[in-house]
Write a structure and sequence with these properties.
The chain is of the alpha+beta class. It has five helices and four strands. The chain has one domain. The mean pLDDT is about 80.
Length: about 180
C-alpha cells in the first residue's frame, strides 16, 4: 500500500481542503486510470515472457483488479493473493523462480501433442500430463530451474514511478491555488 499525504505549509487546513476539493474529481479519475494502466502493465509483462505459444493464459486471467473508493480516499488493488492461490497455484514459482525440482523425476506421464518421450524438436510445443492410471515408461528428470519473472516487482516499480509523477503534478497544482 502506498499512501500519499498532501500538505500546504503556511495555510489553514480549511484552505487546503477547499483547494483540494477543486481538483478532487480530476485526481480520482487519474488514479483510476493509473490503476487500469498498472493492471494492463502486469498482464502485458507476463504475456511478453510466456515460453509456450499455446499457453492457457491461466495466470494472466487470475490477476484481479478492484477500485478502492471511499469518502476522501481513492485507490486500486491488483492481484488478490487468495484468488491467485486458488486459480494459479504456481504463481509464486513463476514470479520468484524455483529450483526445488532440479534433479528429480517428474511423475510418469506424456506430452501432448507429441510422443511420450519427445525429441528436442518438440521441446516447449506441448504440455506434460501425468498418466493417471495409464502406464508410461517415460519419467523425465528436471534439469533446469524455473527462471524468475519478477512480475510483482516490475509492477511495484512501475506503479511507484507513475504515482510519484501524479502526486508531483497535483502538489504543483495545489501550490498555484
Amino acid at each position: 500500500m502506498i499512501t500519499v499525504i498532501f500538505k500546504q505549509y503556511g495555510k489553514k487546513p480549511t484552505e487546503l481542503i477547499e483547494n483540494f476539493e477543486r481538483v478532487w474529481f480530476d485526481f480520482q479519475l487519474e488514479v483510476r486510470e493509473l490503476g487500469m494502466e498498472c493492471y494492463n502493465h502486469i498482464k502485458e509483462n507476463i504475456k511478453s515472457k510466456l515460453k509456450r505459444p499455446n499457453s492457457t493464459n491461466n495466470l494472466i486471467n487470475s490477476i484481479t483488479y478492484k477500485d478502492l473508493l471511499g469518502t476522501g480516499q481513492v485507490g486500486f488493488a491488483i492481484g488478490d493473493i487468495n484468488t491467485l492461490d486458488e486459480k494459479a497455484k504456481y504463481w509464486r514459482a513463476v514470479n520468484w523462480g524455483s529450483s526445488h525440482m532440479v534433479g528429480r523425476h517428474l511423475p510418469r506421464g506424456f506430452f501432448r501433442p507429441g510422443k511420450s518421450k519427445p525429441d528436442r524438436a518438440e521441446f516447449r510445443k506441448g504440455r506434460w500430463y501425468t498418466s493417471e492410471g495409464r502406464m508410461s515408461k517415460y519419467s523425465p528428470i528436471v534439469k533446469m530451474p524455473i527462471p524468475p519473472m519478477y512480475f510483482v516487482e516490475s509492477l511495484h516499480y512501475f506503479a511507484r514511478e507513475r504515482i510519484g509523477s501524479l502526486t508531483a503534478k497535483y502538489k504543483a497544482m495545489l501550490k498555484r491555488l
